[in-house]
Amino acid sequence: MMPKILDRPIILGVVGDSATGKTTLSAGVAKILGEDRCTVICTDDYHAFDRVERAKNGISALDPKGNYIDILGQHLRALRRGEPILKPIYNHDGGSLDRPEYVKPRDYIIMEGLLGYTTREMRDCYDVKIYLDPEEDLRVKWKVNRDTTKRGYTEEQVLASLEKRKADSPAFIRPQRTFADIVIRFQTPEKGGDDAHLDVRHILRPTLPHPDFSPLFESANNNGLLLELARDVDGKPVDVLEIDGGISDEHATKIQNLLWDLIPEASHLRDQLGQVDGSSSVSNPLALTQLLVAFHMVKAALGVHAV
What we know:
Layout: E1 10-16, H1 22-33, E2 38-42, H2 51-57, H3 69-80, E3 85-91, E4 96-103, E5 108-113, H4 120-123, E6 128-132, H5 136-149, H6 155-164, H7 168-173, E7 182-187, E8 199-204, E9 225-231, E10 237-243, H8 249-262, H9 284-301
Helix pairs in contact: 1-9, 5-6, 8-9
């Protein structure tokens, strides 16, 4: 068992536009931390209208006005206090609002969805805040695949929905990026590649004490890995960790070992990494991303950067 100093649940936020990989990242982090110790909640369950009502009212699911943001904020505060909630359920298969679910918080809570950082009171509840920002062509591909294989849409319907929502993402979703501790961007390598070999770029903001990666760069042989000081889109200095999609298993293992050594409390969970959604493939960049997020959750539980 991992020692835990704080006497309340540790809360991770995973925010991003539709089909940015929130569920895949959240599931991987939960496996590392131990699924029996994690409560995973989709904040999209707080939609105020069903699919038919949204179409009738001309309101998007990305619009905070179409969601019970105030109730979501209340529930976040209750969960942080260790109290159970009666969580709404949005049925993505039929676009309906189903019977609420009684949810008790566990040691770790993962809140993933579209609008998790909308208000200051919500943002103050998180210990670690992630924003997923994959390249747009990749996101469109993921959304088409997910919605046609899992949600009963045709490709034409998905593309039409994306076009209809075109103004909503910059208005309601992207502004939340500024509140994240880590911005994660998966992108297709210049030489091409499948989802198991995507490049990933981590923007590490100084709002969290990130691990010291300098030991990985003590030799000249660090192919597939780049760490640099840069400026984010807002002009503020950030560390940028880039992992090549084709990084060798040997180099990926070195990074994993460094992170595992920094969280020995979780060393018994070493094998639960990098599973690509809907595939038997394992992605080294995804595995390292999941582990980096889990590292911060364990450190938060130990009081290293509690808020």
